[in-house]
Amino acid sequence: MTIAKYIDHTILKPNTTLAEIEKLCVEATEYGFASVCVPPYFIKDAARLISGSQVKVATVIGFPFGYSHYTAKVAEVKQAIEDGAHELDMVINIVALKNKDLDYLEKEINAITQQIAGRSVLLKLIIESGILTDDEIVTCCELYQKYPVQFMKTSTGYADKGATVEAVQLMRQHLPSQIEIKASGGIRNYEFAKSLLDAGATRLGCSASVAIAKGESVAGAGY
Questions:
Q1: Calpha distance 187→149 (Å, rounded)
Q2: Backbone phi, then psi, for 181, in 5-degree steps?
Q3: In terms of DSSP H, where are the helices of 32-164?
Q4: pLDDT by residue (tens digit) across 38-80?
Q5: b vs e for 175-207, b when ≥16 Cβ sit within 10 Å of the residue's Cβ?
Q6: Active-site residues: which are they?
Q7: If you placed Cys at 202, which of 17, 29, 166, 180 could pair as Cys (CB 3.0 to 4.6 Å)?
Q8: Which domains does the chain show, CATH number per domain?
Q9: Would you place residue 222 in the very low, low, confident or very high pLDDT band (cuts 50, 70, 90)?
């Protein structure tokens, strides 16, 4: 299997154009990336553009800071599913985590998972590991493993520090096997991408996806 199968081909900048979404979708189908991750505004366009392929449409919820009220996130989730999203990357309320308000985080995840129950939709929780302590990362692992979450994700790509091998390893040590890990933020070459997969990630969020996929053939390694 090539590394492309692990990659969510991503564009989330605030000035994204439809032409860039079209290019993203063409590249995703050409290289066989797992999904395209697009701003909510472009879900319908992406769904149309990847129709007939194996590529999924992913989008973001509560992005990039996560501190919107969970009722607002619920509305985002409903709309994203209605528009055709297959995968949802939601930023948890990091402010609540930093203030040790685990009760709020439980209310948030309960509200979100209720919207997804019975649907073929993947939920990835972004914890922004680069601005968390190790103890806070472990707290997230312990909290969210009690819920029907498919992935925990390291980063939005908007914090000063993105994915690290150490964060992925720590998450893997403290998560049950059924919860996968998505690494994102600052992944710009094949070597780093492979190191994150070796550490336990099973999905990568990348905007440099094509360069990474091409770098695989140069590196000659086995993903």
A1: 24
A2: -120, 130
A3: 43-49, 70-83, 94-98, 102-116, 134-144
A4: 999 999 999 999 999 999 999 999 999 999 999 999 999 999 9
A5: beeebbbbbbbbbeebebbbbbbebbbebbbbb
A6: 89, 153, 182
A7: 180
A8: 3-219 (3.20.20.70)
A9: very low
